[in-house]
Amino acid sequence: MTIRGSNARAAHFEEVLNPATGAAFARAPVANLEQLDEAVEAARGAFAQWSSTTLTDRQAKVREFATVLRENLDDLARTLTSEQGKSISDATMEMHAAIAFMESYCDLSIDTEVLRSTSEEHVEVRRRPVGVVAAITPWNFPVMMALWKIGPALVAGNTIVLKPAPTTPLTTLKIGELGQQVFPKGVLNIINGDGEVGSALVKHPDISKIAFTGSTATGKHIMNTASTTLKRLTLELGGNDAGIVLPDIDVETVAKDIFWAKFSNAGQICAALKRLFVHDDIYDELVAQLVQIAKSVKMGDGFADGVLMGPVQNAMQRDKLRSMVDDAKAKGAKVVYQGDIPEGDGFWFPITILADVPADASAVTDEAFGPLLTIHRFSDPEDALTRANASPYGLGASVWSGDVDAAVALAERMDSGTAWVNQHPAMGPDTPFGGVKSSGMGVEGARWGLMQYTNIHVVNVKKN
């Protein structure tokens, strides 16, 4: 762990499991509550000096950090595959993308905005860093979500204490060690711990902002806890994204994109396409195409040649997916495809495609976070829109059509933070990302995300 710019000794260690084998392959240090306090104190102590440096100097440090991460990218990617389960090619892609996203904040400005300037009065809006940021990251994209938060937090002038998910701590801990080469002591602190440590971090009186990516249930708990001290919040929570496929689409052209919109990263993406609504006219053709693609996907250990899909990251999530399938089948759903899984004790869950799934099945009402897709027929696009919006979640959504204007007109009415047309999901460092309803509050990415790590400070001067 990294506290005050040095490796912190831990009195306790927890085994980290390789999800492809179900066996421990490493041990990770675990912080106690005293070390958590020490990390927050270190960040608080470093804040005054770090926030007083120029934006250009902070951006230079973040660029230097990006260079160090790229120099160690292969080692970081291998660690990521070992603890998360994704293929080594996907882990490498995550590393490259995460670094690029973090580095993008080095091209942004934090400008003063003059609201009024007359002979009598001058009024301007400035942006100040919020203070010490607590970042809490998930197990599906541990590096991406960490650098999404480290970049804007540090560029804006904050200091940070980051806690990764306890099942995927290793790559993030290594990133903290590399940061020791770059940042002043206390600017970047990374600790590991369970729910007790996370809860204490959220409650800590010296934390000014929480940036959290994870489940809606945990996000609600964080929001409730943070209310006692009115901490600033950015919450990127669960999603149950719907996609509507209109009858004028070229099925053969889009089938592969639709398949991977759901099944990338073994379906463990908050903004994956989870509920697919398909028009009657092309329903059978599209289902057949998706099944054919599924049959071609090699599932296995992320280090093996040709593997496109790894295991689910942990046993709890695998068991939840099994329960969803059993519930759907009991309520009349049809299994149109269920693939093979490798032998062994890994956390394997087969590629599964369900049709005719009742609206009250848990695979529809809850977030199917894994390689499980539900497909639903419709004949009227308005009916599809109503069913797509009938969810407490609102992260992403999509419409697929040969008529882009018609697709946009429908997509504009979807209750989601982002609506895509003929793609899902698609993100870039110049685009904000966040949810509505139970999918969270605030955004990450681009200048909108950077501003989430600042407070408005108005200077109002009477001249005469």
Write the layout of secondary structure elements.
Blueprint: E1 2-3, E2 6-7, E3 12-18, E4 23-30, H1 33-52, H2 55-71, H3 73-84, H4 88-104, E5 113-117, E6 121-129, E7 132-136, H5 142-155, E8 159-163, H6 170-179, E9 188-190, H7 195-203, E10 209-213, H8 216-226, E11 232-236, E12 241-245, H9 251-263, E13 273-279, H10 280-296, H11 315-330, E14 334-338, E15 352-355, H12 362-365, E16 372-378, H13 381-389, E17 396-400, H14 404-411, E18 418-421, E19 440-441, H15 446-451, E20 454-462
Features of the shown structure:
464 residues, alpha/beta, 7-stranded mixed sheet, 6-stranded mixed sheet, 20 strands, 39% helix, globular
The gist of it:
The chain has 15 helices and 20 strands. With 464 residues, it is an alpha/beta fold. A hairpin with a 3-residue loop joins strand 5 (113-117) and strand 6 (121-129).
Structure in words:
There is one protein chain. Helix content is 39%, strand content 22%. The mean pLDDT is 97. The protein has helices spanning 33-52, 55-71, 73-84, 88-104, 142-155, 170-179, 195-203, 216-226, 251-263, 280-296, 315-330, 362-365, 381-389, 404-411, 446-451, and strands at residues 2-3, 6-7, 12-18, 23-30, 113-117, 121-129, 132-136, 159-163, 188-190, 209-213, 232-236, 241-245, 273-279, 334-338, 352-355, 372-378, 396-400, 418-421, 440-441, 454-462. It contains 15 helices and 20 strands. Helix 1 packs across helix 7 (195-203) and helix 2 (55-71) packs antiparallel against helix 4 (88-104). The strands form 5 sheets. Strands 14-15-16-13-12-17-18 form a 7-stranded mixed β-sheet, with helices on both faces. The chain has a 6-stranded mixed β-sheet with strand order 9-8-7-10-11-19, sandwiched between helices. 51% of the residues are buried. The longest helix has 20 residues, at 33-52. It is of the alpha/beta class and 464 residues long. It is globular, with a radius of gyration of 23 Å. It starts with a strand and ends with a strand.
